[in-house]
Amino acid sequence: MAAEFLSSVGVSYQIDRLLAEANSEIVFFCPVLKLHESVILKFQQADQRNVRITLLFGKDRGQTKGMRWHKEFKNLRILYHDKLNSYVYRNEKELIITSLGLEELSSALTFDMGVLITKMRDRKAFEDGNYEQDLLVEQSEEVFAGTNFEKPEESSNPEEIIRQMPYVNYFGIEDRSLVNGKVKAPSGKFYYPEMELYNDGTIKFQGFKKTRQRHGEWIFYTYEGFVREVVIYENGSYVDKIFCDYENPAKPISKYYLLFGLGNSVKKLYGKEIANLYFDSKLEEFTGSDKTKLFYHTERFLGKRNMFDQPETFQHMVDQIYIALYDKK
After folding, report:
1. 16 pLDDT more than 70
2. Which domains are assigned to the chain?
3. 25-29 and 76-80: which strand pairing?
4. What Rg value do the Cα atoms of the chain yield, rounded?
C-alpha cells in the first residue's frame, strides 16, 4: 500500500504520533499559526530530544505578534511565506497532507481528511514532498531561530564541497581553486558551489550559486542515487525543469544524467569519493572486484534484468543502459 487515507480522527492521531516518533527532524507547514496546546507540548518534548523543528506559516506575517511559547526553544526555526496555502506535516519517515490545521486537533467542529505517505512504502512520493518543502523553506523569510538551529549558510563549507563535488567539468568549471569561497568559470564569473547529502552520504542535490542565488543547472537526486530532475535557474528565478522519467521510452534521458546516477550510486554503495569519476573511468577503480553490487542496484532501480554484459568503464555501462531502455546506443 503506497498511501493511507485518513479520516478526521485518523489525521489527529497520525499527527500526534508523527510528532512523538520524530528522531531527527520535524517540518510543519501551516498557513494559520495557531497551535493546539498538545502540539506545543509535543514540540517541547521534541526540542528536548534535540529534534530539528521547522515551522513555516503563511497568510498574515503578523501572526507571531504577542506569541511567547517558542522563546525558549533551542532547535526550532519559524519561517514565513506569503504564498503558503497547504497543511503539510512531516518527520524523517512520514508525511501527512491534510485540510486540518494545528489549532483544530481533537476538535469535533470540522470534518477533515488527509493522506499519510511513508518513506518505506512510497519513497518517491515522500521524497517529492520533501523536495517541495525544501524549495519553499529556501524561499521563506526567517522569523525565529533557536540557539542550536544550525543554519545552512553557516554550515556550508565551500572548500569541502568543491573537493568532493563530481562532474564539475559538466558545469563548465575547469579549476577547483577557490577565491573567497567561489570558483571561476571560463566566462570569468565566480560562483559558489553548493551540495547537500542524504544521511547516508548520497548526494541529494548539487549546483552553483551566483550572488547567493541558484544559477544554471541544479541536479536533484533520488535517495537511490539516480537523477530525479534537473532544474534550471537564472539568478535565482526558476526557468525550466527536466524530469527524468526512466519508464518513458519516448523521452530518452541524457547520458550525462545516467552517468551522474551511476556515480552517485557508487558513493552510496561503496562509500567512495567520486570527484574524479567520469565516462572513461574504469569501474573497478571505484567498485573493486564487486561490480555486481552496482549492476544489481541499477537493475533494481530501473526495473530491468540482465542489462549488463561485462562493462569495463562507466561509458560502457551507460551505453548498455541506453540499449536496455531505448533499444539504441
Report:
1. yes
2. 3-150 (3.30.870.10), 153-243 (no CATH), 255-326 (1.10.1200)
3. unpaired
4. 22
Give the whole-angstrom CA distance, residue 327 versus residue 39.
54
* Distance of alpha carbon 34 from alpha carbon 64, whole angstroms: 9
* Average pLDDT of the segment spanning 66-86: 90
Residue of 230, 186, 180 whose CA lies nearest to 205:
230
Q: What is the dihedral of CA 82, 207, 244, 310, to 10 degrees?
A: -160
Q: Which of 100, 158, 94, 171 is nearest to 129 (CA)?
A: 94
Place of cell 550510486: 265
pTM greater than 0.85: no
Helices (H), the chain: 8-21, 37-48, 123-138, 152-155, 158-164, 255-270, 284-287, 292-302, 314-326
**Which residues are registered as beta bridge partners of 233?**
216, 238
Burial of 103 (0-12, 13-18, 19+ CB in 10 A): middle
Expressed in angstroms, the distance from the first to the final Cα of the chain is 37
pLDDT per residue as tens digits for the range 154-169 = 446 899 999 999 999 9
259 backbone dihedrals φ, ψ, rounded to 5° = -60, -45
Give residue 153's pLDDT.
47
pLDDT recorded at residue 155: 45
- 10-16, Cβ contacts within 8 angstroms, sequence gap of 24 or more: 10/114, 10/116, 11/96, 11/98, 11/100, 11/112, 11/113, 11/114, 12/100, 12/105, 12/106, 14/94, 14/96, 14/114, 14/116, 15/39, 15/89, 15/96, 15/98, 15/100, 15/102, 15/105, 16/42, 16/105
Residues 6+ positions from 105 with CB-CB distance below 8 Å: 12, 15, 16, 36, 38, 39
- pLDDT surpasses 90 at 128: no
